Amino acid sequence: MSSASDVSFLSPRSATLLVAPLGALLILFFAYPLILTVWQSFYEGGFTLRAYAELATSTLFYKVLRTTFVISFTATLVSLLIGYPVALHLSRQSPRKRTFYLMLVMLPFWTSILVKSFALTVLLGHSGIVNQALGFISGGTIQFPMVFNRFGAIVGMINYLLPFMILSILGSLLAQDGNLARAAEVMGAGPFRIFRKVTLPLSMPGVIAGIIINFTLSIGMYITPALLGGRQDMMIANLIDFYTRQTLDWPMASAISVVLLLISGALVTILGRVRGGAGVMGVA
Amino acid sequence: MTRPLRTAAVFFVPVVAWACYLFLLLPSVIVFPISFGTGGEFEFPPRAFSLELYRQFFTDAAWWGAMTQSLMIALMTALATTVLGLPAAYALQRASLPGAGLINGFIMGPLLVPVIVLGLGLYLQFAPWNLLNRDVSLFLSHTMLAVPFMMISVGASLRHLDPTLENAALIMGASKPAIFFKVVLPQLKAGIAAGALFAFLISFDEVIVAYFVTGPETQTLPVKMYSAMRWELSPVIAAASTLVTVFSILLAIGIMMLQRKEKQQ
Predict the structure, then answer these.
(1) DSSP class per residue in chain B
(2) Which among A159, A185, A268 is the nearest to B112, CB-wise?
(3) Inter-chain contact A2–B91, Cβ cutoff 8 Å?
(4) Does B141 touch chain A (CB under 8 A)?
(5) What is the distance in angstroms between the Cα of A262 and the nearest Cα belonging to chain B?
(6) The whole model's pTM is what?
(7) B251 in contact with A, Cβ within 8 Å
(8) Which residues of B touch A129 (CB under 8 A)?
(9) Would you call B100 an interface residue with chain A, using a CB distance cutoff of 8 Å?
(10) Which end of chain A is more exposed for a tag (fewer CB within 10 A), N or C?
C-alpha cells in the first residue's frame, strides 16, 4: 500500500468534511463534559478552591482513597498471579486449541458486568455453592461471609480484570522467539532456569502493561464495589456518585473526578510509554 | 514453547488455567438455571423447574419496557456510530490530514477516561439544559462511548484494503461517492458489521452513564437491573440476567465470527 496514492485520493478539504460530524459529536459529548467537570470543580458563582480545600481535610475522602488503592492493588496482584499461568497455558496450545480456550476467556468478557456481579452474590452468598461446599466438607462448622464485604468486592473485580491481564501477557509470550528457549535448552538449562532467565524477562512488557491496565480499570470501578462490597468498601467512583446524587454537591463530585482523571491520566501515559502508544486498552 | 518448561509445569499451569476458566465462565452460566427456579430465594441448584420468573418479566411493564428501551437505544447507537464513524475512519486512512495522530487519539479518548467521570460530566451538561431523562441524550452519550470500537473495527479492515482498486476506479472515471459505495464499502462489510454489533453491545450493556442521564421514563434494562439488585432484590433479576447474557453471547459470537472472516480475507 503506497502512501503516495493514499494522499492523492482524498483532498484535505473533503476529508475534513467527512471527519467533521464525528468531531462535532465528540467535542459536544466527550470534550465538553470533561471541561465542564473541571470548570465545575473551581466555579461556584465565582472562582473558588472550596471543593479542593474540603477534599484536603475530608477524612471520608482519604478513607475512600485508601480503600480504592488497597482494593485495586490487591485485585491487580491476584489477577497477575492467576493470569500469568493462564497466559502460559494459552501460549502453549496449538493455534486451533488456543482459539477454543480464548473463547472461554472472551465470552465472559463480553457478558454484562451486572450479570456477573449478581451471579457472584448468589455463588458466594451464605447459601451459595461455595459456602455449601465448605459446610459439607467441614460438617457445617465453616461458613465464610464472602459477599457485601471487601472479599466480595475483590473477587468481583478479579473476575472482571482477569481477561485484560491474560490477553496482555499472552501477547508478549506469543511474540517471543521460540529459538531462544530452545537454545537455552540445548546449552543445558533446566526448565525453571529457562523460565526464569528467558521466558519471564521477555514477557515483562506484557506483565507491566497488564498491571497498569488492571490498576487503571480498578480505580474507576463503580458497579462491582457497589454490588459486592460492603458499606465500608466505597471506592472513588461510588464517592463521586454519592456527592452527585445524595448530597447534590456537584463541585465536590467534580473535584473528586478531577483527582481520578489525573491519576488515570498519569497511568495511561505510562502505559503509552510501555506499549509505544499502540493499542492502549489491549482489547480489540 | 519448550518441552522442559512443559514437563516442569505439568500440573501447576493447567490446574490454575482450568480453575481460572471455570471462575470466569461460572458467573455467566449460573444465571440460566437460577432463572428457571420458582422465584422464592435465589438458589443454585433450583429445586423445581418453572417459567414463573419469565412470566413476571414479560408481564411487568417496568421490566420489558426497560428491555425494549435498551434495544431501541442500542439500535440507534449502532446506526449513529456507523454513520458517523465510517466516513471519518475512511477519511483518516486515505487523506493526510494535519494532526491526524491527534485526531485519532481524540477519537479513542472515550476508552481512556473512567466512565464514571464521563457519567458525571454528561449529567452536569444535560441537567441545566433540561435534557436528562431524554432518549436523545442517552443515545448520543452511548454513541460517544461506542465510537472507538467502530473505529478499531473499521480501521482494521481499511488497512487490508488495496488503494490501487480505488485509483483504478478513479482513472476509469468513477465519481468519488460512487467509488466509496461501489468499491470501498463492499470490501468493508465485515468490519462495519462487527463495529455495529460492537456498538450495539456497548450500548445494550452500559450501566453507569445510563444511570446518570436516564430517569423513570427512559430507564434502560441495565439501569433497571442495577436498581433491582441494589434495593429490591427481586428474583426477576435472574430472568433479566439470562436474557441479557443470551443477547451478549449471541452478539459476541457474531463479532468473533466477523473478525475471523476478516482475517481470512
Answers:
(1) --HHHHHHTTTHHHHHHHHHHHHHHHHHHHHHHHHTS-SSS--SS-SS---HHHHHHHH-HHHHHHHHHHHHHHHHHHHHHHHHHHHHHHHHHHS--TTHHHHHHHHHHHHHS-HHHHHHHHHHHHTTTT-TT-HHHHHHHHHHHHHHHHHHHHHHHHHTS-HHHHHHHHHTT--HHHHIIIIIHHHHHHHHHHHHHHHHHHHHH--HHHHHH--TTT--HHHHHHHIIIII--THHHHHHHHHHHHHHHHHHHHHHHHHHHHH-
(2) A268
(3) no
(4) yes
(5) 10
(6) 0.91
(7) yes
(8) 44
(9) no
(10) N
Q: What is the pLDDT of residues A115-159, one digit of tens each?
A: 999 999 988 987 777 877 787 777 777 777 888 899 999 999 999
Answer whether residue A181 shows pLDDT above 50.
Answer: yes
For residue A174, give the chain B residue with the closest CA.
B1
For residue A187, give the CATH number of its domain: 1.10.3720.10
Cross-chain Cβ contact A107/B252 below 8 Å: yes
pLDDT tens string A89-112 = 999 999 999 999 998 998 888 889
Both B125 and B244 in a single domain?
yes
Residue A47 lies in a domain: no
Higher pLDDT, A73 or B263: A73
Number of domains in chain A: 1
A268 within some domain: yes
With CB atoms and an 8 Å threshold, state whether A89 touches B13. yes
Domain region containing A157: 52-275
Which of B18, B20, B244 to mutate to probe the A interface, most A CBs <10 Å? B20
Q: What domain range includes position B10?
A: 3-35
On whether both B199 and B92 belong to a single domain, the answer is yes
Residues in A closer than 8 angstroms to B94, CB to CB, are 6, 9-10, 15
Which stretches of chain B drop beneath a pLDDT of 70?
1-9, 39-46, 265
Q: Please count the residue pairs, one from chain A and one from chain B, whose beta carbons lie less than 8 angstroms apart.
A: 310
Residue B105 shares a structural domain with residue B189? yes
Both B22 and B78 in one domain: the answer is no
In a domain, B54, yes or no: no
